[in-house]
Design a protein that fits this description.
Structural class: alpha/beta
Number of helices: 9
Order of helices and strands: HHEEHEHHEEHHHH
CATH class: Alpha Beta
Distance between the termini: 51 Å
CATH architecture: 2-Layer Sandwich
Radius of gyration: 18 Å
Helix content: 40-55%
Strand content: 5-15%
Length: about 210
């Protein structure tokens, strides 16, 4: 089974992983991805998505190649088409406590567990690390461009985190979180030097430590 999955290449049908797994008897196949490993502020957010089997999978692309409007439209379409979705936020305090990699994996675990209905029996995970769950799974490097389920998860996670950072802008407007979403832009780094970190900054990150 793993060999069959490894044969999938970029540019092939982006539902081929899911189709292959269904042919092997798996019934509830989720894609999982996270966003927010690089920012200096805010949570890391993961999503896990089980797509309905009879959809146009070609419209689900890596969130990084989509503009905000398309991400928003596709996120709503996922809800409307009956996709089963789990989301998890791991806050900056936990990132500082256990490090960003472990926080990302924890977010994936919780997101997968948050999917309601039929338990997930196979997990497709973006990246080189598997999620810490007792489910058959495969980690796929650049999985957002190879699996529609992972791409869908990347869209949901990105939209959810962006919404959160826009609300944080209302609380901490000097950092312009509504624009930079917590990433270390020149403007954000300058604000850190002037105002210092706010409660949602990651104290363990060099860009924050060096600004204090």
């Amino acid at each position: 089974m793993i060999q069959l999955l490894s044969d999938c290449k970029i540019g092939e049908d982006n539902f081929i992983f899911e189709k292959t797994l269904r042919e092997q008897g798996y019934k509830s196949i989720a894609g999982c991805d996270e966003v927010g490993r690089g920012p200096l502020a805010g949570p890391v957010v993961a999503a896990a998505v089980v797509l309905p089997p009879h959809i146009d999978s070609s419209i689900y692309l890596d969130s990084k190649v989509l503009n905000q409007r398309k991400r928003e439209l596709l996120a709503q379409l996922l809800v409307d088409c009956g996709a089963r979705i789990g989301v998890a936020f791991v806050p900056e305090s936990e990132i500082d406590r256990i490090n960003i990699l472990q926080a990302s994996l924890l977010a994936m675990k919780i997101a997968t567990e948050n999917i309601e209905g039929t338990p997930v029996d196979f997990l497709l995970v973006d990246g080189k690390f598997k999620a810490p769950v007792s489910i058959d799974q495969k980690a796929i490097i650049k999985g957002e461009s190879k699996s529609a389920s992972i791409a869908a998860a990347s869209i949901i996670a990105k939209v959810q985190r962006d919404h959160f950072m826009v609300t944080m802008h209302e609380k901490y407007p000097v950092y312009n979180f509504h624009k930079n979403k917590g990433y270390p832009t020149k403007e954000h780094r300058l604000a850190l030097k002037i105002y210092g970190p706010c409660p949602i900054h990651r104290r363990s990150f060099n860009g924050v430590v060096n600004s204090a």
